Structure formats: C-alpha cells, structure tokens
Amino acid sequence: MNTKYVALLVVSICLVVRPILAQDDALIDEDPDLEASGETDEDEAFLAGIETAEIEAPAVEKDTGRAEEPGKAYFSVGARLRWIMIPEWLIKWFGVDTTRPSDDPGSALPLISNIGVGPEFTYRRDGFDITAAVWFVGLGWDDPISFKESDKGESSWEYVTNDMKAMLITADFMWSTALTDWVAIMYGAGLGLGIPWGDIIRTEATAESDGTEPCDGPDPDEDPWCGEGEEYNETYDKLKVVPWVNFLVGARFKPHRHVAVVVDGGFGMGFQVGLRAGYIF
Predict the structure, then answer these.
(1) Which entry of 44, 58, 73, 166 is 20 to 30 Å from 130 by CA?
(2) Residues 225, 273: one domain?
C-alpha cells in the first residue's frame, strides 16, 4: 500500500476517535455513581502523594479533674455529724469514781454518748484547711449517774442528773498529705467555745450494795449520810462557757471536683468520730 494512503487513514481514525473519548470523559465527571463511591479530594491527594492536614483531637473540657492547683484557694460549704463519747474508765482516770443507778449499776455503755451536728465553711489552700462551724451538741446523759472523788469515803456520793446542751462555735485547722488526686490523710486540731443551756442537778446519795440512791432530804436520824449542809436537788450553775479543744486525724476523699468528704476522729471533750461533707465552689 502506498505510504501516502496509510498516513491519510491514520489521521482520519484520530479525527473520529478523539470526540468519542472526550465525550466519555465528560460522562465520567458527571456520573453520580463515582461520587457515591466515596472518592474525595483527600483520596486524590493521597494517591497523588500530597499530605493533608491532620484532624485535630476534640478539645478537652478544662477543670474536670480532681487534682488541686498549687497556690489556688478553694472554698466549700457543707455539714458535719460527730459522735462524742466519754467512757467510764476515762472519768476514773482523773480520780473520780462513778456508779449507775441501783437498777443498772454495771452498764457497759459509755458514760456520756451524744451526737453533734451543724453547718460548716472551709477555706483550703495547698493542702491546708481552716473549717469554721456552728454546731449543736448534747453534753448530758440519759440516766442519773453518781460521782465521788476516789479518795473520799462512801458518804461522799452525789447523784447527778444532766440535760445540758451547747451551741459550739469552733474552728478546725487541718493539714493533709495527698496519697492520690482524690485521697489524702488529714491531721490537726480544733478550738472553740460553747454556749451551754440546761441543768445539772446534784443530790446527796446513799451507797447501796448495787449502786446508789438519792436522799429525799436531810434526815440524819433515818440515814446518817443524808445529813445537814449537803446538797439536795441543787442546780449547778457555774458552767457559763464550754471550752472546746480537740485533736483530730482522718481521711479526705474527693470523688468529684465539686465534692469533698472527710471521715475523722480524735480526742478532746471525750473521744470523737465524725463525718463531714461539703460542696466545693
């Protein structure tokens, strides 16, 4: 075949095929199936070796942790519940003998057992707490108790009833050593004063084999221990203010950044075991 005719045939084929190929490319660009396939500009960039910016992690909300910032002051309001108990052996330790009424001379219950409760406010900074509280506490006992000095004779018993209560205004100063972000050991002391009300009534008592019995009045002929010049239903009114000093140890728990719970115990006006909880703001 003549070369001239071959060249003319090739050119003719190109002129026919080129429009067909261009039309196919346009159809591909407009094909919705390709868009649905998930191929995106990022895929094209990846295939082309072009790096795209990494997706940033979502921002974490600030101040969601329980850890406390050094130098920052924290404040909380809450309430306290405290059990105050004085065992009989502690009274005897100070040179005072005690006995219960003749119908219950050997009770194993504490000599004094009362509950205290009230609101409190705490300032905390760098693990040091100052807690101010105004709380109510009982200072009496349910059944009469007889007392005498240990070095006195059997004629020295006094039969005492007590329904005293007090409103305490106190401040606890507590240091803490953190074990984790939410657990710390606490230790310190509390000081304050109480405003008491109620009556302590003292009556001369007769010693019995199983306890004591109060005298009805001066009657030395009937009972030589119920003599003249003794006290019979006398109100003790010398207690105007109750001093409050106690030493405390405990543990502080912070289950949430806005919540603190303290379990403590100690010694002051008897032994104490308490629970405190507050909202931190």
Answers:
(1) 166
(2) yes
User: What is the tens place of the pLDDT at every residue in 119-146?
Assistant: 999 999 999 999 999 999 998 888 888 8
Q: Strand (E) positions, 60-142?
A: 73-86, 96-99, 112-125, 128-138
Distance, CA of 184 to CA of 177 (rounded, Å): 5
As a whole number of angstroms, the distance between CA 131 and CA 120 comes to: 7
Q: Rounded to 5 degrees, what are φ and ψ at 137?
A: -145, 140
C-beta atoms surrounding 231 within 10 Å: 15
User: How many domains, the chain?
Assistant: 2
Q: Is residue 273 part of a domain?
A: yes
Is the Cβ–Cβ distance between 169 and 111 less than 8 Å? Answer: no
Does residue 65 lie within any of the structural domains? no
Is residue 173 scored above 90 in pLDDT?
yes
Strands, DSSP E only, in 126-281? 128-138, 145-149, 158-162, 165-178, 183-197, 200-208, 211-214, 234-236, 242-256, 259-268, 270-280
Question: 278: how many CB neighbours lie within 10 A of its CB?
Answer: 23
Question: Which of the residue ranges 42-46, 89-93, 122-126, 225-229 has the most confident prediction, judged by mean pLDDT?
Answer: 122-126
The CATH number of the domain holding residue 214 is 2.40.160.20
Please say whether the beta carbons of 207 and 280 come within 8 A.
no
The whole-angstrom separation of Cα 257 and Cα 26 is: 62
The Cα 280–Cα 251 span in angstroms is 17
Give the pTM.
Answer: 0.69
User: What's the rounded Cα separation, in Å, for the pair 279 and 108?
Assistant: 39
What letter would DSSP give residue 226? S
